[in-house]
Amino acid sequence: MNRVIVKDVFKDPLQYVKKEIGVCGWIKTSRCSKKIGFIELNDGSQLKNLQVVLEDGVTVNFAEALKENVGAAISVTGELVETPDAAQPFELKAKSVEIEGHSSPEYPLQKKQHTLEFLRTIPYLRARSNTLGAVFRVRSVASFAIHKFFAENGFIYTHTPIITGSDCEGAGEMFQVTSLDLGALPFDAEGKPDITKDFFSGVARLTVSGQLEGECMAMAFGKIYTFGPTFRAENSNTTRHAAEFWMIEPEIAFADLADNMKLAESMLRYVVKYVLENCEQEILFFDEFLEKGLLKRLKLLVSSEVTVVTYTEAIDMLRKSSQVFEFPVEWGCDLQTEHERYLTEHLFKNPVFVTNYPKEIKSFYMRLNDDEETVAAMDLLVPGIGEIIGGSQREERLEVLQQRMVASGVKESDYSWYLDLRRFGGTKHAGFGLGFERLIMYLTGISNIRDVLLFPRTVGSVL
Ligand code: 4AD
Ligand code: MG
After folding, report:
1. Strand order in the sheet with 374-382
2. Fewest C-beta in 10 Å: which of 12, 73, 130, 165?
3. Based on C-alpha coordinates, what's the Rg of the chain?
4. Which one-letter DSSP state was computed for residue 451?
5. What is the DSSP annotation of 190-223?
6. Does ligand 1 lie within 6 Å of residue 217's CB atom?
């Protein structure tokens, strides 16, 4: 069979018209009168279906194909013909239809629009729905755009470990990895579980971030990025937190906070532009059904500069606003989602960088500013989500880093190689982490992180 992808047929129909082609996919809808039948076929390559026309006496397996239920897998060979007078520009006149996989009448995805809540109950099938199908195509295109951006800008793609001995964020929100039988733990003389008997002869965990290892790579290659899964055992049951999510973490040597923000901004603009150019159908679909004005919002990002405010200025603006917040605002407090969203949605009505946070509320590795009160941190806040990027210039001065570790209650012995990195040509450097799921939410208008991951891992739920 001369198999073609439906997307390619729509992209350049003239190449296929009056030729015999083959397509494979799943039945979205099917209807028939006595002698003629219609199947809307979707192969996952795009939102739009291909109309297949079956004719009794002409199409092999005419009756069998039209008896099939929605969701069945079929392959079709036939001739592509133009249909200038119909709603669709062309259709496939089927010579023969093969049933590749039956479906039953209980197939849960019917023609009507299903709610996202309902689709969450059938994760194994929901990639075949219009909405989730579009989300996962955007996910794929955005991943590619990220790799393309970094490759074009001289970055080395690095793979950092998933199992780790160190807690990058020092926040202790990690999943432990063990090969011990929890029902038959070995105990030491003090009656505590004997971790020396475990696989790694010590505590091992799933990484919350590849940053620390990424810094080693930046000290060898100058500009690097990671793009991989990260894990957090935060007990936050929100629409923006997943226990397993993907993060993009660039790290640049010989660079400061301003360089870091410039990089974040140009990366984001590049990815949004690339998705607008390559996922037109999907973005128009989301604009119509999920978030009116999505297209305008994304175009605005591509064409405008991101504003920068310091944490101190942001606190001032929040305090002066008439808004009543659940969490009170004062200098020194961590910005909550309600504060972040108020800043980006109401005060700036656009993405905004907030910089120079108090050292007490940020991680030990962030570079201490000259005021000795704040650190060279940056968070990028976007409408609808809040924080999408978190980053900083890193503390390259060994003694200052050691002091910050002590003040943050982080044990030096757990980070000995990280400290040694400062001893051997450690230079000024900076980096950030972009939450990939939050980016996809931003690109699609999807408001719950559970709908941009096929099998989301969240508190109390693993399927
Ligand atoms: O701000 P975070 O915690 O920063 C770091 O992990 C740094 N080590 C990054 C770096 O500088 N290399 O996380 C970075 C981003 C957040 O801005 C957010 O978009 C996303 O990761 N994120 C989550 N996304 C989904 N679910 C969660 N539980 C997330 N936690 C963080
Ligand atoms: Mg953060």
Report:
1. 156-157, 223-231, 244-253, 429-435, 386-393, 374-382, 352-358, 307-310
2. 12
3. 27
4. G
5. TSSB-GGGSTTSS-EEE-S-SHHHHHHHHHHHSE
6. no
Is the beta carbon of 432 within 6 A of some atom in ligand 1?
yes
Phi, psi (5° rounding) for residue 75?
Answer: -125, 140
167 lines ligand 1 (CB under 6 A): no
- Comparing CA positions, the residue from 216, 207, 218 lying closest to residue 161 is 207
pLDDT classification of 168: cutoffs 50, 70, 90: confident
- Alpha-carbon distances of 417 from 253, 367, 423, rounded to whole Å: 18, 18, 10
Cβ(387) – ligand 1 distance below 6 Å: yes
Alpha-carbon gap, residue 390 to 381, rounded angstroms: 9
Ligand 2 mean position, distance from CA 201 (Å): 31
Q: State the residue for tokens 């197939």.
A: 107
Q: How far apart are alpha carbons 162 and 180 in whole angstroms?
A: 19
The CA–CA distances, whole Å, from 462 to 454, 456, 458 equal: 12, 7, 7
**Ligand 2 (single-atom ion) residues, CB below 5 Å:** 390
pLDDT tens, residue by residue, 426-455:
999 999 999 999 999 999 999 999 999 999
Predicted pLDDT at 461: 81
State how far the Cα of 246 lies from the Cα of 388, in Å rounded to an integer.
Answer: 12
- Per the prediction, the chain carries an average pLDDT of 95
pLDDT band at 160 (very low <50, low <70, confident <90, very high): very high
Q: How far apart are CA 92 and CA 455, in angstroms?
A: 35
CB 119, CB 131: distance < 8 Å: yes
Q: Using a 6 Å cutoff on CB, does residue 435 contact ligand 1? A: yes
Q: Whose CA is nearest to atom 29 of ligand 1?
A: 241
pLDDT tens, residue by residue, 380-400? 999 999 999 999 999 999 999
Question: From the CB of 141, is ligand 1 less than 6 Å away?
Answer: no
Beta bridge partners of 21: 78
Q: What is the pLDDT of residues 44-72, one digit of tens each?
A: 999 999 999 999 999 999 999 999 999 99
pLDDT at 390: 98
What ligand has the least distance to the C-alpha of 208? 1
pTM for the whole thing? 0.96
Q: CA 61, CA 181: separation in Å to the nearest integer?
A: 56
Ligand 1 atom 9: residue of nearest CA: 433
Distance CA 251, CA 241 (A): 24
